[in-house]
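Hi support team,

I submitted a single chain yesterday and got back a structure, but I'm not sure I'm reading the token output correctly. Could someone confirm the output below corresponds to the sequence I sent? I've pasted both exactly as they appear in my results page.

Thanks,
R.
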Amino acid sequence: MGIFWDLLQQEELDKQEKNAKNLEERVSYLEKELVATRALLKKTLVALETHLSKDIDGDGKTG
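Hi R., thanks for writing in. Yes, this is the structure output for that exact sequence:
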């Protein structure tokens, strides 16, 4: 019975390792997406401030 228990445990460990790798990949993807989204938001804000000649983000300057 012990060998079967060991096999079940190993299978569960392998499954958890696979899930961890998937989670790491998802977190990495989301981090990259966040950087891209923030860059796009900054470009949009600069363009909008320039177009309106108004300080929207409160940094004391337009554009």
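A quick pointer for reading it: Helices lie at 2-52. Let us know if anything else looks off.

Best,
Support desk
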